[in-house]
Amino acid sequence: MDLNHQFTVAVPVEDAWRILTDVERIAPCLPGAQLQEIEGETYRGVVKVKVGPIQAQFKGQASFIERDDAAHKVVLKGEGRDTTGKGNAAAVITAEMTAVDASNTSVTVNTDLSVTGKVAQFGRGAMADISDKLLAQFVVNLNALIAEQPATPAPAATAAAPTGGVRTIESAEVAPLDLLSAAGSPILKRAIPVVVVVVAVLVWLVVR
Predict the structure, then answer these.
(1) Calpha distance 109→39 (Å, rounded)
(2) What is the pLDDT of residues 26-36, one digit of tens each?
(3) Which of 43, 83, 89, 198 is spaced 20 to 30 A from 116 at the CA atom?
(4) What is the pLDDT of residues 100-122, one digit of tens each?
């Protein structure tokens, strides 16, 4: 299943490239997502969601499989799983950035999503609708981050990772993503349990 998105950020393309390939920096922009550790080019974390008083937490990871600094193109592989067994998902995400002008960059994201289990019963239209809403919120948060921190110097040398190659990320607890506002009541009435799984996967994968 293909999900396609496009958005614009108000920075030059080189700055956009540095920002959007800095997973640690942009992770707080992802609704409900919390980056927990980095091992080489693999990023692991959790997604927290809630439906009314019910809260759940899901595990996911993403890793770079291609990165072209000259063409401003990156390909990542991600996967997410519901610990209660309702389903799993995997995705290959391709993002490309092109300059609109000297101060703005267009970003296109194609997500090739594969789902199994109960998640697979959820229609493509509903998945696309949810991912559209989540991406819109991500872009709002991202542009707010850019406005607060407009300077984007080239990354400094990466600090040596601890023994074992895993670096733990210390960050504040994030609020769970509220599915009632993200998905809308008509969708939730049809399949609340499946919505929880799909949104968790999409938050973790679709904008990477």
Answers:
(1) 24
(2) 888 888 888 88
(3) 43
(4) 999 999 999 888 877 776 656 65
